[in-house]
Amino acid sequence: MSSLFYRKIGTGQPLIIIHGLLGSSENWLTFAKKLQKRFTVYLVDLRNHGQSFHSDHSHFVIMAEDILRMMETENIQQPIIFGHSLGGKVAMQMTQLWGALIHTLILIDILPDALPLDRFGDLFSKLLNFNLVNHTARTSIDQALQVFIPDSSFRQFLMKNIKRNQQGKFIWQCNLSVLAHHIPSFSEAIVFQQKFLKPTLFIRGALSSYIPIDQLAYAYQMFPLLSLTTIPAAGHWVYTDQPVAFTQALFHFLKKS
């Protein structure tokens, strides 16, 4: 059975960082270095992302099982589980399968509720029709992507998925077609069989639409020890938008829990 690619830095209590859709462990490496004096940080690449294996099967339940196998391989005991966006869904699924194995839960700009499909479908359609073969330089790729991705920071985030193959041609490192196919399953709500009765932090970006204040009832029901922190002037990529405020909020919670 294939294993996930992951990075390991630091010493101390184990903390597993799970990136979001079209992300990778690389996105969180700078942040993880701020934690390495207090925590052993594991940064995973989910299946079909980053340097991990490609598979036709991709659902947050299967992704949660992948991370459990990594925990068994590394003999990780009582980790803090930290998930952003899709990674947060994977983290929440872990509480339903192996809640007793988790010490604390940190969820970044995601709820257990279902997400509207139109949030992703149009983007994936355009990316799948984008012909990387026509480009010989990253600058030309960036210019071409501007047509339908005007946000420079989001464009640079997506371009981290573009690498050169052994022949020097640009390719998508992530398994773009499979991820696109599984957008409906990624958008599903988490099905809860039990409440997670351990400290849980939700961090939301004030400018993001992923955690509407009026839609928190289900989250509070399933996570009775939930703490909510809103980071001003931050969107969905909360840490990138406001790294100082994000880090302060995280450390404040970890000191209490």
Write the layout of secondary structure elements.
Elements: E1 6-9, E2 13-18, H1 29-33, E3 39-44, H2 60-74, E4 80-84, H3 86-98, E5 104-108, H4 121-128, H5 138-145, H6 152-159, E6 162-164, E7 170-172, H7 176-181, H8 183-186, E8 200-205, H9 217-222, E9 226-231, H10 238-241, H11 243-256
Parallel strand pairs: 2-3, 2-4, 4-5, 5-8, 8-9
Antiparallel strand pairs: 1-3, 6-7
Number of strands: 9
* Estimated structural class: alpha/beta
- The CATH homologous superfamily name of the largest domain equals Alpha/Beta hydrolase fold, catalytic domain
Overall 3D geometry? globular
Number of domains: 2
How much β-strand is present in the residues? 15-25%
* CATH class assignment of the largest domain: Alpha Beta
- The strand line-up of the biggest sheet is 1-3-2-4-5-8-9
The main sheet comes to: 7 strands, mixed
Share of helix, binned = 25-40%
Q: Judging by the overall fold, what is the CATH architecture of the largest domain?
A: 3-Layer(aba) Sandwich
What is the subunit arrangement here? single chain
Low-confidence stretches: none
Would you give the CATH topology of the largest domain?
Rossmann fold
Helical run tally: 11
**Rg, please?**
18 Å
Give the N-to-C terminal Cα separation.
Answer: 35 Å
Q: Could you spell the SSE succession in H and E letters?
A: EEHEHEHEHHHEEHHEHEHH
